[in-house]
Design goal:
- This protein has one domain.
- The chain is 75% helix and 0% strand.
Amino acid sequence: MIAAERAAGGPVIRAAMACQAILGRDLRAVLRSRSQLYSSLLFPLMLLAILGAGVSEGLDPSSSRIRDGDYTSYLVPGLVVMAALFSSTFSSASYYHDRDSGLLRVMMASPHSPRVILLGKALAGVLIGAAQGLGLLAVAALIPGINLEWQFGAAPGFLLAAGGGLLLAVFLNGFAQLMAARIRTMQGFHLVMNLVLFPLLFFSGAFFPLDDLPLWLKVAAAVNPLSYAVDLVHIAAYTDTNGHFGLAVDLAVLGVLAPAVFLLGIGSKKGAE
């Protein structure tokens, strides 16, 4: 009986240890890259200070979604999503570095499945993206003059935002792996990711409310996965209403789409070749 259990559990345990080793390696690489850590946090904070103050004071926004014309506070959830997006995209560059250096081919020569290797690398990107987004939210909440609502309370609201950030990071890293499986160079990868993700970010509700947009932009926002992540963080941290789509819809869309895209991504064997 014990021998049978070891035989059944052995491959699973070895795969988990391999995945953990790759995950730890990629996390240590990011922690050593201080320029990436600082820039991914400082750039959204710079936008928050300059763009937020400029619109709040210079344009006097009157949308009912922006409380008391305070655009700086409205901007926080959108920048949380942007931070997670940038971090997930940048962490995906490790695929190309390892592939060009030959290290990824060495990993693939191990007894482990390519999916185990890709899972370890993708999980590192998920943790990095979610941590960067939530780190920005925590810093923004401590800045005087930024008024977050936390309609469910600060701790439950932060946990809700953490769940949304984690689902978003899962989706983004799965999508990044799908792109890496089809684009051969790092330069082409970043070009395509920026071409796809920047427009999605701009009509996700991150920078302006979706309520008063033209019909075609509302339709585009409705099919945009980032819109549901932004709406969820708005509900958790900023608005005192049920948001644009509603909390249940946000969780349902992200809860189905994120794992589906992630599984497709780590199943893309071309990305490991």
